[in-house]
Specification:
globular, 4-stranded antiparallel beta sheet, 2 domains, alpha/beta
């Protein structure tokens, strides 16, 4: 597959509802899209880097710069046999995993279309349907928080994840658990706590949480292993797992009992599959985390979630939870059982609404060899 051209686009999409985490409030997403042209086919990738370097050291503006100046020139004009060949072409550039993932994932999408197979099948997926959970940001009041949970429980989602931080945790967990004693419930701290909070965090064991996601430092798994020994609730690692080596080290240390795999965070499908395989070998379940993706990134997450060790409900929920109008058709929907059907058609399985993308585009550049 010879890469003829790559188009970088920034689109700006207003969220249907503000999303609040320990990092702050997001109301509009600036998203870098990759449009890859080769073999008479157009494939798409999405860079999940945020507006600010808060979740990771990447942000959309650094991703745009590194993609245009360093990454795309390494692909243009190249004959690439497989999506898994892309990491080797980009490895001279250190870091910038989210930028790399957008390009690599677009090549996997291209290959799936050229070979006329679904992206899920090309990745090695085996699931026909995936279980969906939702991530609920922090609301302005307890009443609003409970109302938000009620909406998602009524929609049938199989796992509710609550964003938390010091001062917005124990009382909120108690209120939700008392109202819904039997739902599958988890929390996500996004590194808002320290090991000195261990006794406070241990108190959450009473709420029978599925997991506590990344409670400590974003780049740590040693102190997470200390915390895991002091609490019963499983720790799930997110930000600190950048690649298969991190996964191997963290699981060997006992830093957590669950892994969240975000394809952008680990640098693309190839590394995501490798992390999946490490966890499976350790007998540790994984799930797919979300980064407020548009429908393009959401389609890629669905395909990844079809791999066999994705045994826990992920954050791959319906388009309408985040967007009044998505950029794909059909939009992603979840059924009343909280499941999404994995597409079996060629490529990602969702057509890109180019007219909608054009409407939302604020800058673009076309690069050719």
């Amino acid at each position: 597959m010879k890469i003829d051209a790559v188009v970088l686009r920034e689109i700006q999409m207003p969220l249907a509802h503000p999303f609040v985490t320990s990092f702050g409030k997001t109301t509009t997403r600036r998203i870098l899209l990759i449009e890859l042209q080769a073999e008479g086919v157009t494939a798409w990738g999405e860079c999940v880097a945020g507006e600010h370097p808060y979740f990771s050291d990447e942000m959309i503006d650094t991703a745009w710069l590194i993609t245009e100046s360093e990454l795309v020139p390494r692909l243009l004009g190249k004959n690439i046999a497989h999506g898994a060949d892309v990491p080797a072409l980009l490895e001279q550039v250190r870091g910038h995993r989210m930028a790399k993932a957008a390009l690599e994932n677009a090549v996997w999408d291209l290959q799936a279309q050229v070979e006329n197979v679904s992206l899920a099948k090309l990745l090695g997926g085996t699931r026909k349907r995936i279980a969906c959970g939702v991530s609920i940001g922090m609301q302005d009041s307890m009443e609003a928080q409970l109302a938000k949970v009620e909406t998602e429980v009524a929609a049938g989602y199989q796992r509710i994840k609550l964003k938390c931080k010091p001062g917005w945790d124990t009382a909120m967990f108690r209120a939700v658990r008392e109202r819904w004693p039997d739902i599958l419930l988890s929390c996500d701290a996004n590194s808002a706590y320290r090991l000195s909070d261990a006794d406070h965090i241990a108190g959450w064991d009473e709420f029978r949480l599925l997991m506590i996601e990344q409670p400590l430092w974003y780049d740590d798994f040693y102190f997470h292993s200390e915390l895991q020994r002091r609490i019963h609730t499983p720790i799930c690692l997110d930000e600190s797992i950048r690649n298969r080596r991190d996964a191997e080290a963290a699981l060997s240390l006992g830093s957590g009992r669950i892994l969240n795999i975000k394809v952008g965070r680990v640098g693309g499908f190839s590394e995501a599959i490798a992390v999946h395989d490490v966890a499976q070998r350790h007998g540790v379940p994984v799930w797919c985390g979300g980064m407020l993706e548009s429908g393009i990134g959401r389609a890629h997450n669905i395909a990844l979630s079809s791999l066999p060790n994705f045994t826990l409900p992920g954050d791959v929920s319906a388009s309408k939870r985040y967007w009044a109008e998505d950029i794909i058709e059909p939009e992603v929907t979840a059924d009343s059982a909280g499941e999404i059907t994995v597409p079996t058609t060629s490529g990602r399985g969702f057509a890109v609404r180019v007219d909608r993308v054009e409407q939302l585009t604020v800058r673009n550049v076309r690069l050719t060899s």
